[in-house]
Specification:
homodimer, alpha+beta, Arc Repressor Mutant, subunit A, 5 helices, about 65% helix, globular, DNA-binding
Chain lengths: ~110, ~110
DNA sequence: TGCAATACATAGTTATGCAATGTATTTAGT
DNA sequence: ACTAAATACATTGCATAACTATGTATTGCA
């Protein structure tokens, strides 16, 4: 009945959260874009469109939170690998703190 | 250093989440708008601007998730009280399920 | 008298997710 | 050999929502 409302809401909820997710994943090791999409799909069940991720990675790069490097493959299309920067790690720490407080707050509200 | 990035990110993260918070609060009892702002501020440390909440309540009403009623006061300005509808309760259940899965997924990523 | 708090509301700005579309290479199936 | 799907990147335009700024109006306090 309210499927449309819920669908729109789910899109809105992803705003900002996807940056948090991507930075946390890149905090473990380097990834290329297409790989990130699969990783997010597998580990979180979050659907992320290509038209969402690539601009997102560009924004992270422009904010100096990640750097990128083209890597030629033995066969196939070259991949652009992304690495988190020192700045990215520092910022991520603050995002994670904010996120933790936020979710704890909401937990209190939903379970009373 | 990246205060600007973090500040923008915090705004983006609130998108959708504020609707979840408001619906959960209204699921306990009726509130008027101004009261909701204080309630959210006190219980969650989430800052919500008036220019955010009032349009949000209008959207919830237009989606038939809440209804509103003007209530005259013995003294002072009349208050517009909001009540969650049956439709709102059903929708809220689904939002809470999605939210729970989402936060659990992110928890896995941030703590590895 | 004037300022802060209460209580509602809207217009314009800004940012992001997403569908649609595009390019190019490789692989698997028939 | 041909075709479709998968891989891998990217951009344009639309819809949506948070926020700043601004506005109206009442009440209480210094």
């Amino acid at each position: 009945m309210n499927e449309e409302f819920i669908h729109k809401w789910e899109s809105q909820v992803k705003k900002g959260i996807l940056e948090l997710v991507v930075l946390n994943i890149l905090n473990n090791r380097d990834y290329y874009g297409y790989e990130l999409i699969e990783e997010i799909r597998n580990y979180t069940l979050i659907e992320i469109a290509e038209g969402t991720l690539y601009p997102l990675l560009i924004r992270l790069k422009e904010s100096n939170l990640v750097i990128s490097e083209w890597v030629e493959q033995d066969s196939g299309i070259p991949r652009k690998y992304y690495s988190i920067t020192l700045d990215g790690k520092k910022t991520l720490k603050e995002l994670n703190i904010y996120w933790e407080n936020l979710t704890r707050s909401i937990q209190k509200i939903t379970t009373r």
